Amino acid sequence: MRTSKGFIFTTDAIFAFYLITIMLSVLLLLSYSPKIYTEQSQTLAKDILNAMNNIKMSDLANDSRFPFSANLVYMKRNSVSSWSMFLHTPEHNNSLVSVYPRDASLLWNSGPGLGGSGFTVDSSPIVYNGKVVITSKNGTYLIDENTGHQFWYLPIPAISTPAVSNGRLFIGSTNNIFYSIDEAGNIVWNQTFSGPIISSPVVHNGKVFFGSMNGNVYALDQYTGNITWFFTPPSGNISSSPAVSDNKVFVVSNNAVLYALDEDTYGLLWSFNTSYDPTLRTDVPFDPSPAVANKTVYFGYTDLFYAINTTNGSLIWAIPAAEVYMYTSSPVIDNGIVYVGSSYGLVVINATNGLILRYSDIGSTIVATPLVANDSVITVTMNGLLTVRYKSNWSTIWSYNMGSRVFSSPVLVNGRIYVITEDGNLFVFGNCSLWDENMSAMDTISAFWLIGKNSLNVSESLCAQALGKEMLDSMVPSNYGSELVIKSAGIPGLSCSGSPSDESSVYTNDCNKTKYQRILIRDSKYISRVVQEGSTIYYAQNPLQFELRIWN
Prior knowledge:
- This protein is α+β, with helices and mostly antiparallel strands.
- The chain folds into two domains: 2-56 and 439-551, no CATH class; 95-429, YVTN repeat-like/Quinoprotein amine dehydrogenase (Methylamine Dehydrogenase, Chain H, 7 Propeller).
- Helix content is 17%, strand content 33%.
- The strands form ten sheets. A five-stranded mixed beta sheet has the order 1-27-28-29-30, with no helix packed on it.
- A hairpin with a 4-residue loop joins β8 and β9 (177-182).
- α1 packs antiparallel against α2 and α4 packs antiparallel against α5 (459-475).
- The chain is elongated.
């Protein structure tokens, strides 16, 4: 409790110090001659800039005077910051405690065919460290999370979703090669196999696990690429992604046999044969993967869905599919409930006893794994309809038709939803996202502004405008005109309407500039520390220059 009170006192002290300084500057303005008035206006502007440079965004988390800033911090603290592998965790449980977009606000999208001719995407995106990794049949791409800017392209064709660990990407390709790649796009090591790799890799305890269409399951050392072990099932290839839990690797072959392997020794612990009919197999690029929760492995294959004891491989329950649907997606388990896609919609199952709680006929096949976030379920149909629904009553919060087929499972990072269509159109839903709450208010404004200038739309510029407005409205007396300006060579700013222009105004409370006829104060320059060499978030050729203009 002492620590908490001390923190609050320190935050309030910061505000008190700067606000008292600003008020004294205002009083001096009212009593001095025009020359001194000009000097004191400069002092006021410098004091405000100094305050904005020293107040961290985290200081505003619970301050009612700064609701926009407080919401940014809340979203940061209640969202996952990265998505490092297929279905997020080694257990493949796509259930999150995370905020999500409450409406269909499209932040940006890349446009069809990022890679041009032959750009076909069956995998899900990976989001980490401000970047998005997209694999396609045409190659592999690394792009900026906020702007869509492409950093590099590698001619590595892939259907599988990559994984990332310790700054290294792991990609299984359709050209029979498994790659480890650093963030700069350099190949660290690779291994060649005798069949395509469609299975999405999982990284756990220093090993990379995946299956191959040559019929083997592999564990590679993630640092050297050496084969630690491999397992050859009696029959069947592997296109689904392994799940790893409790020192066991669970993998389903394409003849619907579930295998449990020892994570360290590759020894077969048990197997479960579903005896499925191969003629029922659906025409999708990969087979559904298992998910593990509460010592139970769940998976569906065509006309049956199973719950298997992870200790001994015994059947807990199985649910036959109705005549009108088959199970087509990997499952997600959330608070004792299983959500799994089918050929006609979503099936909701009691995880304990296997009773079907809800069958939602959406009218299209769901191959993408559903995503559960807080009170809602996010689904994407194969015909491209993204829908966010409440778990409690299944009412729709919002939906968006992306207009193309989708095999990619949705990803939720920093309060934003990422989905990519088969034709290579990456959709990003959401709004302003705070990446570091320990940054100052000024650096956060400048980062929003700079990202917005290089982005596919002006949403981030509007974030800069909203934050700048909140700061100036709180600190500059209402009877004074003010304008926060950012200058950077070759980069346009915002007009008062929020649209891009040749001006560099972030925010002004006097759009018509009527008070400019009397006096205009240009503050001393402030160089932002946020744009620095080696930054992984912001990209500028020159430092940013700031001016806070105050007049009466």
